[in-house]
Amino acid sequence: MRSGRSQTRRLLTGLGFLLPNILGFLAFTLIPLALSFAMAFTDMDFFRHNPFRDEPIRFVGFENFAWLFGHPEFWHYLRNTFFLMLGLPFAIAGSLGAALLLTRVGRRPGLIPGALALATLVLTGSLLALRAGGMSEAGVWFVFGLTAVTALVAGVFTGGTIYRTLFYLPHFTSGVATFVLWKKLYNPQTGPINHALDPVLDGVTNVIRAAPGWFGVGLPLLAGVAGTLLAGWQLRRLRQHWDDATAGQVAVGFGAAMVMLPAGFLLFWLGLSTGLAAGFALGAAAILTILIVRRPRRWGPVCPVDTGLSAEIALALGLVPLLLLGAAGVTLGPALPAVAVTGIEPPNWLGDYSWAKPAIMLMALWAAIGSNNMILYLAGLSSIPPELYEAADMDGASPTQRFWHVTWPQLAPVTFFIFVMGIIHGLQGGFEMARVMTLGGPAGSTTTLSYFIYIEGFETGRLGYASAAAWVLFALVFVLSLLNFRFGNRGTND
Amino acid sequence: MKLFFAACVIGLGLLSAALYWTQADREGDVPVITWITQNDENKRAIVDAFHQWIKDEQLPPVELRIDNTNQDPTKKLVQGVSGVGADLLDLYMYEQDLFPATGMIADITEDAKRLGFTPDATYPALRGDLVVLGRQHSFPRNAGGTLYWVNRETFAKYGLPAPPWRWNSDEFEALGRKFVAAANPPGARQRIYFANGVSRDVLRRGLGLSTFNETGTFCTLDDPRNVSVLARVRRWVLEDRLFPTKEEDAAMAADITGYGSMFSHFTSGRFAMIYTGHWGFIMIRPRGVFQLAAVEPPQDGFPNTEMGGGSVAIYVGTKQREHALRFLQFLTSDPFNRLIVRQADSLPPVPRYAETEEFLHPAGRENEWGVHGAFAHSGRETGILYSRSPFVLFSQTFRIEIETYEAMIAGRLTPAEAAKQMADRINTEIRLTIARNERLRTLYEERLELQRRIEERRAGGRPVPAAWVTDAFHLAYYRAHGWLEEETKP
């Protein structure tokens, strides 16, 4: 009896401690969540449903969803959201690279400080050269230069702690402050990025003017041949992996799509409509996949459909940018001599329809490299058993082989977690950036689903409609997460 | 630990109580009213003048305080519909129909008659801003049209004549081309522009086209006249380079005043003209003495200028309604209007003050004399409010028009496609509104019937009752052409 009373008291005490959190969770998460779900099926609009209007709220079934799917802007903003998410693999690669670098700084003091010292010298030399070359805005450059040099020198002497702090800086700096900073960096006329690009582009312009024929004909030809060879290599590689049962159907499909994606971009840049270019890319990828997976395997072994997917994703990080560069070379090359006549201007980063999204992706990449992802990778790297590396060394593995056969598979659970979280954040993201940097423009090119929900909810007042959009977003996150769990590589033995 | 937890709870409770009891309006016996507006020198002078006026008129004392932390339109709106708005709210442009539509703005029709601040006390052109669906919701604290400010020194520097007071698009284009060619060395990056931009609305209206039809039931921007306006503006921006693109303009913005670099570029000669309101004096005067003039924007047929202003409305949930009403009454007073004249913050709300010598020819400011009269003329003769429809929020119309225009400038749409997309998207929004809002659906059906009758009468060459035409532009256009019954049968 006494023990029962005591237990009840302890329970109540525990609940008392938890109560503030539970109340906060109820008030700011659970109840709003339930309300928004209910609102998604109503005509709630704060122009008609507020303390000063007594119109009844009507249940409208799935009407909000039907409107949403019939709204062309919804699809436009959904495409924007997915486009901005294309930066995710690069962000993962960046944070992994940063983590590897930071781990190596501590682990191999002899080599890395030397490299850092060399980088310091190069950077200092570059800054001096820029200054000597008549670089304006010298003050700005010296501030940047000094910061970079200090960071590098400090890194040499302190091992890596200062680097970890510096790399993590974007994460604990207020989002709005960094957006304002990037807006200034991106300013086409007064921003340091374009100030740095100006002399480089002037140099490029001079080179093109000196040899217009080479650039007009030679560059597209070279880019086309290189791109074709690279694509052929990847397809041959996919076929071989399929034969060896080291790639499943999903991996082959993904690998083929990664080859055809730049081809789609090439067609789009050559003037084909988005739909046709995307249709060609997807269709060609599907045909190639079918052609490969219909081949009988050499020894008849069977493997799960997602075998080798993580390797394809990792490869795509390097392959796709190279193929895209090739496609860009094919399309841009012929136009270069004409452009060089008037001079090549640096981009109008946030103001140009075509540049606004890549500019935001670049900024997001910077933020993602030094984020929690990097910390997770650092933790993941420190938990890899050293005996695996010793065994690899004894087998005579090169650093690249050590990475692909030890580090990368061992980091698979971390990568999986980062990828899932990245997809979730990517789908939900873009609001702050759009609000602070571009207001969703130019021409809606940086309006993401989350910003669309904000506009519909708080500017247009259609709370029911905005809630429906929010739940569609949730459904997307849910489905993509399920796909990740189904096909993603969570284990360390792939 | 339990004791510590309990102490925290008690401590926080006591602090909350202390905060509540020390709120501003609990400090004294004088009631406090809050006004959401900018907290600048001019507004503080208005607050002081209001306090003095209350004393002079021997009205019950009240303290007016400025709240500038909640100026963001979305913040104002969300606070208002949540039941915690400020007593007095500044309303600008699209807020004039947005806020009353929520029911959060008090209906002051009867009070305005009692205290003398009906729409008749200010510019007739502003009526559509103050009266929404037949009920008055606000009164202006300033008013005015938008004109091109001309820096005559810039034109003289390049040996070109200053623009005429009234001109058409071809004349505008011809002078603009000459200016850009004279001011920018060939082969170099363009740094000097003819103007900061142009109003597409004024150009459309000049051709007799409005955003909506006479009754606001349909967006008419897919009209060929809009296509021609868009094509011309695109040419001015991309080929003739009379104005910077929006991006170039943003890129030139070195300051963070919220007005971009417009004023500094105007005074430094990088913009020969800027398109803005009379309030520009607040920004230009501190920069020095310039030889100024103001001219109408170009138009091909029907002379018009964009009219607007900032008005003040009362929150429906205010506990100090009578004091808030006194502030609106103060806006018609002599001290307030003379203060606005001295501050040069747009036109004073009572039109007769814009005809005084003090306004037209301020002593010691001879360089400005060509500007004040031009703005007074615009407010009196040619100013027309933005076209609005009760069936679609002005903010949506505005956003869609801009977004589609930007897509055209970015080369993603042709002028014809842009015009069609503008109309399609706005009409879709109208359909969404009336599908849900029963009250507006009834009104929409009534207006559709009116529209049918208007078109029938116009086809027969007969005049139309003024009460049928709700669109600000069409009303002015019909009146100017003698198509209104009230005009033909006075």
CATH architecture of the largest domain in chain A: Orthogonal Bundle
CATH class of the domain at 25-142 and 309-355 in chain B: Alpha Beta
SS strand fraction of chain B? 5-15%
Tally of helical segments of chain A: 22
Would you report the number of β strands of chain B?
13
Q: SS-based structural class of chain B? A: alpha/beta
Helical amount of chain B: 40-55%
Return the CATH topology of the largest domain in chain A: MetI-like fold
Q: CATH class of the largest domain in chain A, anyone?
A: Mainly Alpha
Q: Pairing-aware structural class of the strands and helices of chain A?
A: mainly alpha
What CATH architecture of the domain at 25-142 and 309-355 in chain B would you give? 3-Layer(aba) Sandwich
Give the integer mean of the pLDDT values of chain A. Answer: 82
Q: What would you report as the Rg of chain A, rounded to the nearest angstrom? A: 27 Å
Low-confidence stretches of chain B: none
The chain-level mean pLDDT of chain B equals 89
Strand order of the largest sheet of chain A: 1-2
- Give the termini distance of chain A in whole angstroms: 56 Å
Rough outline of chain A = globular
- Main pleated-sheet profile of chain A: 2 strands, antiparallel
> What is the β-strand count of chain A?
2
